[in-house]
Amino acid sequence: MRTTPESLRKNLVERLRVNEGVVGERVLDAFGSVPRHLFLPGVPVDEAYEDLPIVIKRDGEGKPISSSSQPAIMALMLEQLALEPGLRVLEIGAGTGYNAALMHRLVSPGGEVVSVDIDADLVAGARENLDRAGYPGVTVVRADGAEGRAERAPYDRVIATVGVWDLAPAWFDQLAPGGRIVVPLDLGGPQRSVAFEAEDGHWASRSVLPCGFMRIRGSFAGPEQTRVLNRDTEFTITLPHGGEHDPRALPAAFAGPAVRVPVGVAVDPRALFGGLGLWIAGREPAWCLLTESTGAETASLPEAPLTMRDQRYTAGLLAPDGIAVFAGRTELAAVGYGPAGGERAHALASLVRDWDAAGRPGDRGLRVDAYPVAGPEAVPAGGPVIEKTHTRLVLSWSPA
Length: 400
Description:
Structural class: alpha+beta
CATH architecture of the largest domain: 3-Layer(aba) Sandwich
Distance between the termini: 49 Å
CATH topology of the largest domain: Rossmann fold
Family: Belongs to the methyltransferase superfamily. L-isoaspartyl/D-aspartyl protein methyltransferase family.
Shape: globular
CATH superfamily of the largest domain: Vaccinia Virus protein VP39
Keywords: Cytoplasm, Methyltransferase, S-adenosyl-L-methionine, Transferase
Main location: cytoplasm
Helix content: 10-25%
GO molecular function, one term: methyltransferase activity
Number of strands: 20
Oligomer: single chain
Number of domains: 3
InterPro entries: Methyltran_FxLD (IPR027573), PCMT (IPR000682), SAM-dependent_MTases_sf (IPR029063)
């Protein structure tokens, strides 16, 4: 039987229904109605309906800077946004225009979607895609996402489809009373999609979900840096808080002697990018992430705990003269390299044991409260406090 875009779209909806049971029928109907392949010209139709992100633009060094996001996370974020007919929506990051089309479907009749992007070529491409797919009513504008779009304010909903380091004051200023903001927010390195609403003079999360998005560019770009340590092995390090330390000596350190410190508790390696990673990142500004190609003949991270899509992944703590990273797939250990590596390895193992003793908090029960930096200094006691430029984030966990 011939495979058609309609049948592929139906299959995608069924995958979203099975894999993401929290996605409601209205959102699923939108995915069943909006033809994703028309927003990805040049991409084979069958690939367009895979539940995968698809890169649509890279920078001069080949680094991805824009994509059509994974449908599963798009569906979850649309559920977080809680769209209804008649609502007005501001989207930060137009991309292909596909998400704007889905939202237009959800706010019709009577609603409005305004999407902004910093790149003129992406704005033009999104406009062409939307017209081709039959959504001429969506407004697409070239603008710095940090500024929002005051001309069409106020909005009932604001959503960012790029990772943001902080919450822009303009988004809150342009939000109507009772509105909601959904953003992929940096929590010290780990990223979570957080739905915020106003509560007692600050912004409180209504739901928090794991996610992974390319970071926003322009005036609101955060300090995060990704540096290539070895191009031959695609060995990179990501520093969520920027370049406080120079990592150029790390390849030589990894080739030298190591200090191995057993963690002492059983840990699923996936927790490094879940609850454990979030726990450590909120307490340690030296937290960093490392990746390396699995095709490298000589690997710097042969014992990396996670392997996905031809890449090895680990995380650790960086120091001016050393680093400690997690290693091992069955028995997790902290391994230190360089003069400060041993001390960092013991600190890393201690943090894991603290997380274990605290009941292994994860995404379930996580609450994020965002207080304006310009407001009162005192914030309620909770978990770690993450300082941003405009907001002070307080993480806390409800009892299991």
